């Protein structure tokens, strides 16, 4: 975050707090610390807030820029901020801050994200890969987690009438659970999604542990047979 190119991010650089936004350092070389300033969300309508989510990084609240990622909760992230987030979490495992880890507890590595294939126009607005139109709050936004293609929700529903579960732009197959709506602002819905993501991770770990145990047992049986055969000879 400093001008030397080698400093580590501070908590203020990564944590997105309620009614707060990041004020960039004002030093010409970045020597001053970033600070949080209060903002009034009441002056923004739900429509304006939704469009804000379409075009801003969920971590830093900076304008979105290519390349950017999407998580299974439907938040968008600038690449550099995601790398800083993952590094920050790895380096602070023993010093967990509740508000920080609750917000991004679903992200442990790049496997929890998909690199979006959608483009931004000159005004840094999200563009639908099918219609090439700007995605807004009225149209809604969808990201396919299987491939990273981003569409207007309205257009996606119209062209996906056949329900073949094949992306219309890259022809990659996807599951219904791969359809991620971008910009959901309902806390209860987000909490349910977090629980589902956590359950999937735990189930995956159990499956991997079971497979590892089976492989180990098979190797033991094979080794035992080899020893028995050697003794007979």
Automatic annotation (TrEMBL):
Comp. bias intervals (Basic and acidic residues): 204-220
Q: What biological process terms from GO does the record include?
A: DNA replication termination
* InterPro entries (UniProt xref): Rtf2
Give the transmembrane ranges.
Answer: none
A single GO cellular-component term from the record reads: nucleus
Instruction: Give the region (Disordered) as residue ranges.
Output: 198-233
**Name of the protein described by the UniProt record:** Replication termination factor, putative
**What is the species listed in this Swiss-Prot or TrEMBL entry?**
Plasmodium malariae
